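Morning!

This is the sequence you dropped in the shared folder:
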Amino acid sequence: MQRALALARGVRGQVWPNPPVGCVVVRDGLVLAEAATHPGGRPHAERAALEQAVDAAGATLYVTLEPCCHWGRTPPCTDAIIAAGIRRVVCAIRDPDPRVNGGGFARLQDAGIELSAGLCAREAAQVMSGFFHRVRTGRPELSLLDAPARSAPEGVDALLKTVDGRLAVRPAGRPAQTLPGGGTPDAAGLLTELGGMGLTSIAVPAGDPVAAILRPFAGAGAAGQGAVPEPGRTRSSPTG
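The structure's back. Tokens below.
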């Protein structure tokens, strides 16, 4: 699981709107394949790892987040796991997305796959803190930088800054986007708008006018297992 967590950490800031997930497939003590969520959020880590493995029948799959069980832009990862003949799944933490939220676990168990959940859950929640925060609040996790910046720090989805009196979002590795409107923004409304774009984490450079407005929201994120939303208390998610 530590290797899966390392893979997930390595793609933070690159895979929104989806969470950074790591997956390792092991059989008889040998690693058959490993992968993380690809840039842009697809393919998911489990599907990418299983596509690498020539034969994963009877193997154990370690993954940092509950496999998805719904159809989005890609088929469910649970279906790929079942089709590959995986014997056992070891998962760090439940996916709070209301489209999953325990459904992936149930699908695997119904297929006769042995399931173990909770290994390194707190570490996994920290790696995916922005995703968990967005699911819980509808807003991305916010950090205020100590210095000016031209691009998003490593591991952060996007930089938010004021350019010629307008707010601009500069995602890592993607084109910048100027937000509509002007004047003094409503902090909660602005963050909700950014969450609706799929962003899970943003940073604001020091000295930017919007920093003072957003300051009350800085540092609020999912720091551990207790941040996982309970069923019925989550928000709709733009992930797929």
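Headline: The longest strand covers residues 30-36.

More detail when I'm at my desk.
O.
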